[in-house]
Structure to design on (239 residues):
């Protein structure tokens, strides 16, 4: 799409201070409703305008699920699979969603799949791949094994991240334990993750310590728990 140069300072200010919502359609005839992504206008050198998505959503699906004994992303949940449920909630909150993991495993699902650029290096590599694949300012990144997430809770994380304007916003699963697998990362975090991974430092809990980090303490935290074992899954489904 072509956007003409608008020399008027008045027009620029109007664009700068308002958000535009683009209508997008769901690929592959998927039944899920796709919310329009939020887009922001920025002034470029020479007087042109750069329309950049200010939000994007990602679901990490690259884990091995060794303790679950099967691919937990594909467990049946609420009439679909667990990853489809979580992707739908992320999409509703962020305006878009992509899966980060193996295209071979998830190519039949109606979502773009982003491969890890540092394969087999854990969730830090998944966060890195998400930040490296696009240009959204604020990136909502959620693990595929968190069925307690909802679109409203995730939208609040994004809103709080934008309000605080730090490199990342990470909720606390309890008084001292951050949950970096359901968090919002600004695209400026990418060099930190790139450097850490190239140095062989793969622990996400270590990498986030290098960020200008804001923490959020939700009133209720059970929704931030990961389900890692068959016992965890049985307990959640039985509630």
């Amino acid at each position: 799409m072509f956007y003409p140069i608008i020399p008027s300072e008045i027009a620029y200010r109007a664009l700068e201070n308002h958000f535009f919502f683009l209508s997008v359609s769901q690929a592959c005839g998927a039944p899920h409703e796709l919310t329009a992504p939020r887009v922001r206008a920025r002034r470029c050198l020479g007087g042109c305008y750069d329309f950049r998505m200010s939000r994007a959503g990602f679901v990490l699906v690259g884990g091995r699920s060794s303790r679950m004994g099967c691919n937990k992303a594909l467990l049946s949940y609420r009439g679909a699979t667990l990853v489809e449920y979580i992707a739908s909630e992320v999409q509703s909150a962020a305006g878009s969603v992509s899966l980060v993991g193996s295209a071979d495993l998830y190519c039949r699902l109606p979502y773009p799949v982003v491969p890890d650029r540092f394969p087999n290096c854990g969730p830090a590599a998944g966060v890195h791949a998400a930040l490296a694949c696009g240009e959204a300012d604020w990136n909502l990144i959620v693990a595929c094994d968190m069925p307690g997430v909802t679109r409203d809770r995730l939208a609040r994380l994004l809103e709080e991240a934008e309000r605080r304007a730090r490199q990342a916003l990470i909720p606390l699963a309890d008084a001292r334990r951050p949950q970096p697998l359901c968090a919002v990362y600004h695209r400026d975090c990418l060099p930190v993750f790139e450097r850490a991974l190239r140095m062989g430092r793969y622990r996400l809990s270590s990498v986030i310590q290098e960020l200008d980090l804001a923490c959020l303490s939700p009133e209720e935290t059970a929704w931030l728990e990961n389900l890692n074992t068959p016992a965890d899954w049985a307990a959640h489904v039985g509630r």
